[in-house]
Every structure is written in C-alpha cells, then in structure tokens.
Specification:
about 650 residues; alpha+beta; Rossmann fold; Beta-Lactamase; Helix Hairpins; 4 domains; five-stranded parallel beta sheet; 18 helices; 22 strands
Length: about 650
C-alpha cells in the first residue's frame, strides 16, 4: 500500500449515515482508512488527544458544540492539521469566515463527491509542510551558523551580476571593509581600499574573469578606517545565461586567522544548496514584507527576476495583478506570520503576459534562539496543472452524467413528441379546409404556436441524443482543411449577406483523426453562436484560420493534460458583443445559454465533448463589445495512413 494513500481521519459527525458516506467515498477513491467518529464534545476532546490524525472532517451543527469550536480547538493543538467542514443548511458566503478561522475547505454535503480531491490536496500539503519545516529548521540553523561563523572568522562574501552590475554584500563584509550598513555596495569602493600596485593587478584579474568562467585567489591589503587589514580574496565567475553572468567572491580577514574557515565554506554551500534547490518557490522577506531573496524556483514559477523585485514589497510588486480576494488573504497571512503563527492560503497569480497560475502558499516566521522574529518566509507550490485537471475532470463528469440521462429518457420522450407533431399536422390540414368557420380560423395561430414549440422540443431532444452518441462516433483519418472548405461552402450559401467572412486555412493538408459529421457540428454551432453575437454589430465579421503549432511553444503548455507534440489550431473569431467575464466559465456547462428561448445551451458543451474525445481541447478568449475567439486544438497526424 502506498503510504501516501494511508489516512488516519477523525470524523466529527452526529449522523451515522453521513459518517459511513464519508468513509465510503474516501475508500472508493483509493484511501486506506483508519477512521473514528466523535459525536459529543467530550468524545471529540478525548479522541483529538489520543491519536495522531492526518486530517479532521467535521459537520458544523453538533449536539453540544459546533464547527467553530472544532476549528479553534484543532488549531490550538496542531495549527497545521487540516480541518474540512462538510455540512448542510449553511450559506456558502459563510465559507470565508471558516477559512479565516483556519478551516482548510468548506463543502456542502451535496458536494461530497469532491471530498476525496480536497482530502488528497490537503493531505499532500500537510505532509509536505511537515517535511519542509524539518528542512527549514536545518536551513535556519545553517544560516545562523553561517552568519556567526562569518563573524567569528571574519569572512565576508559578495556577488556582482553582469551586465547590470547589481551588487550584494554580506553583513560581515561591511564590517571587514569598515563601511556603514546603509552604504550602497559597489566593488569600486572595495578596490579603493587597495594599495596602488594591487589596485592595478585586480583590474587585470577582474577583466580576465569577465571574459571566461574561472576562479582566482590572492592575498591583498585593505586600508580601512580602522587600519590595515590583510585579507584573502577569492573570486569566481559563473555564466548562467547567454549574455548574463555573475562574479561571486569572498574576502577573508586573515589578520587574525580562525580555524573555522573550512566549516564556513561548507555551511555556506549548505545554505545555498537547500535554498536554491528546493522544489518550492521561496521568498525571504523582512518584517515589512520586502523581498530580500527569492530562490531559483521562485524566479521560474513567477517569471520575475530577483533583481527587479529585490527590496520591493512582496504583495504590491509580485502579486499586484492578483484578484482582491487573493491580496486580502496574503495580507492576512503576513499579519499572522508577524505574530509567529503559520498560515496557508490558496491564491491566483497573473503573469505579465496575462496567463493565470494558482499557488498553495505558506507564511511563517524565522526566529533566533530567543524567539525573536528575524524574517518572514513565503513558500508557494505551483498547483496550476492540478487545478486545470480538476476542472477538466468536473466538466467530463457533467458530460458523462448528461450522456446517462440522454440514454435513459431521450428516446422515450422523442417517441411522445412524434404523435403530437402528427396530430398537430393533421389539425392544420383539416382545419385549413374550413376557411369559413370563424372559430377555427381564430384557433389556427395557437395551433401554429404549438407546432413551433414541439419543433423546438424535438430539436432539444436531438441535441441531447447527440451527447449520448459522442462516445459512439466513428472516427477516421481525414484532411481537416478539406472538410472545412466543404463546410464553409455550405455556410456561405446560407450566410447573411451582411456578415463578412474571412478565411486563412493555408495550403498544407491538415491530417487529423475525427468524425466528419462532428466536424460539421463544430463549425455550424460556432457559426450560429457568432451570428447571434453579431446581431448588433455595425460591421459584422467572422475570421476562421487554420495553422499547425507545437505544444511546447503554445498556450497549451499551461493546460497541462495534452499528450501530443503537434496540433492543428482552428481559430474562430467574431467582432460581436463578447462574453461577460462573470459567465465565461459557465459557457461549456450543459443547458447554460444567453440566447433565452432561442437556444438550448448544448452547442458549446457538445463541441467541448467532441474535442476532449479526440484528445484535443477548446479555449476561449473574449472582450465585451470587442468580440470572441474560440481556439480548437486537434491532435495532428503527419501523414494520411
């Protein structure tokens, strides 16, 4: 059994049926469960102390206490232990209150199917936090040892980044050189302390370092304010990008040489190794929230240069484009860290190019041996791929549920509509013969209205049946470009003369594995939606394009669940009314429509289901009053087999 799937869970629940349902859904997910139930407050107090739990799952309404007490009591005993509220008859807007109290997640009992995903996420985060704290204890100890060792042995270090010439000095280097800590670090100030002959020599060595990656060691004399000091100067150049490199160096005051030199070097490497090789993005902050250091993972994950944000306030610089809810949580986390309390928060992050990322963040403080807070640490785990996969899974579950629904009742409902349509048709033909009967003539509009409603109902059933047949479609290798041209020819025939249609399909065959009927469904549904959106546009325009892209050089890189290396990208854009930001995430939900009685809400969900079945996807980008673009990605075949 995978140790990650073993789960010790305390379920605080007065309903035995709910307790069994929770255990069952977790076991079905693959967890090996050791579970106990606490119904009364005394039972809860006893069990929370008797066992070592991985997670707490609690109802809110309990016989002689409630969920607030559960959260506060768990946080007193173990602040990092996740508490998940699973309850009913409680408004979702109360969720933020429980999250601020320290709950990991809030779920209605009607959404218990989501519980395994939440438990899996919180369990992974909890176990990771335990291992990270051990690593950080080691890191803090190493940093403290490094700082003290440098002071004892009079060893300072510096780093210069080229071509910007950004320079960092350690605290001990300021002391060795005799400069105030507020002095701006510049290497020219160091060289000004050298004797003239050594100054000329260091210029030559420095120029050689700039040309090639190597190291150099020498003994120099420093003319400081407090007198002459003999120092061992060690320099090393390192190129980390094609046009960027750094020079790292140490100045060791050997006027009174210490035997700790070797241990200092080891501890310095220990500190750099743990900090830079961590799989988590780490920000080291001062007590005002300014960025002191960020490790390599943070630079890669947040796509920000350390030199660009060093000295800036974390939330106002790194997270300046995040939503207000995320900024509020981060601010709260900083306040708790300043009180020597840890805080975990889920936030969204907007990259400079507009892409969205999601992070699980931990705030906590680093203290000295007396308990005084020295630094604030923010650790961030990139969970973007997991969020995308969860959303894709939820959408596929909707499609599967709708397919089951269709298979169960759609055919029977269709059979009921058929005779109704026949009877209405019969009435139309019979009553039209009696043109002189005034009462019959007055009822004809009603008969016509019934007929139209029945036609719409039949069309809706046909759409639902299309859902149930997505998995039964017959795919074959075809030239997507050729089929698009055929469909476009049909579209142009019935297209409104007011709409301008632009196409750029290239000249290269676009081989894919698809059902030709479904290709027609995709384009016709997109076209109908575009026509509806262009009703109020003074200059209606539709643009359709086809191009081949590489996965690693496209926005698919951030989707996270694609398998192919090459895709055919079909772009379908209009300059219509656009989609409101608050509903854009709902457009692929079955039966969601903005067309009122004119739409079924199944067009886009059908397209989504077809694309996922083919191993592709569909992405949307829209601006209100500017238009909407759908990008469909078909797995590419190099040749027709």
């Amino acid at each position: 059994m995978d140790i990650q799937k073993k789960l010790n869970v305390l379920i605080v629940e007065d309903s035995l049926a709910s307790y069994k349902a929770i255990v069952s859904v977790l076991q079905n997910f693959g967890f090996s469960i050791f579970a106990e139930r606490a119904e009364w407050k005394a039972e809860f107090e006893q069990r929370i102390k008797d066992e070592t739990w991985d997670i707490i799952i609690s109802d809110f309404y309990l016989p002689d206490f409630d969920g607030r007490y559960v959260i506060s009591r768990v946080k007193e005993i173990n602040p990092d232990l996740p508490v998940i509220l699973v309850t009913e008859f409680l408004p979702e807007e109360a969720a933020s209150e429980f999250l601020n109290l320290g709950a990991a997640e809030f779920l209605p009992k009607s959404s218990i199917i989501k519980l395994p995903f939440v438990v899996n996420r919180e369990l992974e985060a909890y176990r990771l936090k335990i291992s990270q704290k051990k690593a950080w204890d080691m890191l803090v100890h190493g940093e403290e040892l490094l700082t003290r060792s440098q002071k004892i042995s009079h060893l300072g270090h510096f780093e210069v980044i080229f071509p910007e010439k950004n320079t960092l000095w350690s605290l001990e280097l300021y002391r060795i050189l005799g400069f105030d800590f507020g002095e701006i670090p510049l290497m020219e100030k160091v060289w000004s302390l050298l004797d003239p002959t050594e100054h000329e020599h260091i210029k030559i060595v420095w120029e050689d370092l700039l040309k090639d990656n190597h190291s150099k060691e020498m003994i120099v004399t420093l003319n400081t304010k407090v007198g002459k000091k003999k120092a061992n100067l060690w320099l090393e150049a390192e190129r980390f990008e094609e046009s960027r490199f750094r020079i790292f160096g140490t100045i060791h005051d050997i006027s009174d040489l210490s035997e700790l030199e070797h241990s200092i070097q080891l501890n310095e490497q220990l500190f750099k190794g743990i900090f830079n090789n961590s799989s988590q993005a780490i920000f080291l902050l001062d007590l005002q929230g300014h960025v002191i250091r960020m490790n390599r993972t943070a630079v890669l994950s947040f796509e920000r240069d350390e030199t660009d944000v060093q000295g800036l306030e974390l939330i106002r610089s790194i997270f300046s484009n995040s939503d207000q809810e995320s900024i509020k949580k981060l601010t709260y986390g900083m306040k708790l860290a300043l009180k020597n309390q840890s805080f975990e928060v889920f936030v969204s992050y907007s990259l400079l190019d507009g892409r969205e990322k999601y992070f699980d963040c931990d705030f906590y403080s680093l203290t000295d041996s007396s308990g005084k807070i020295l630094y604030i640490v923010l650790e961030a785990k990139d969970i973007t791929e997991k969020i995308v996969l969860e959303r894709a899974y939820a959408q596929s579950q909707k499609l599967e549920a709708l397919g089951t629904f269709a298979g169960g009742i759609a055919h029977d409902f269709n059979n009921l509509l058929t005779p109704m349509l026949a009877y209405v048709s019969y009435l139309n033909s019979e009553w039209s013969k009696t043109e002189t009967n005034e009462a019959i003539q007055k009822s004809l509009p009603a008969i016509e209205g019934i007929s139209k409603s029945l036609d719409r109902a039949k069309n809706l059933i046909q759409q639902i049946l299309t859902y149930s047949k997505i998995d039964n479609s017959i795919s074959k290798q075809l030239d997507l470009r050729e089929h698009l041209l055929q469909v476009l020819q049909e579209v142009r025939t019935v297209s409104s003369n007011q709409i301008t249609l632009f196409t750029d399909l290239g000249n290269e065959p676009a081989y894919v594995n698809a059902d030709p009927i479904q290709i027609f469904q995709i384009l016709s549904n997109l076209y109908e939606n575009a026509v509806f959106a262009l009703q109020e546009s003074p200059n209606p325009k539709i643009t359709i394009s086809l191009s081949k892209i590489l996965y690693e050089k496209s926005e698919l890189l951030h989707v996270g669940f694609m398998k192919n290396t090459e895709y055919w990208k079909l772009g379908f854009a209009d300059n219509g009314s656009g989609i409101l930001p608050e509903i854009i995430e709902k457009i692929f939900d079955p039966f969601f429509t903005t067309k009122g009685g004119k739409g079924t809400g199944l067009g886009l969900p059908i397209i989504y289901g077809i694309m996922v079945k083919m191993g592709g996807t569909i992405l949307v980008n829209s601006s209100v009053d500017k238009g909407t673009e759908f990008d469909l990605y078909f797995p590419a075949w190099k040749t027709m087999l």
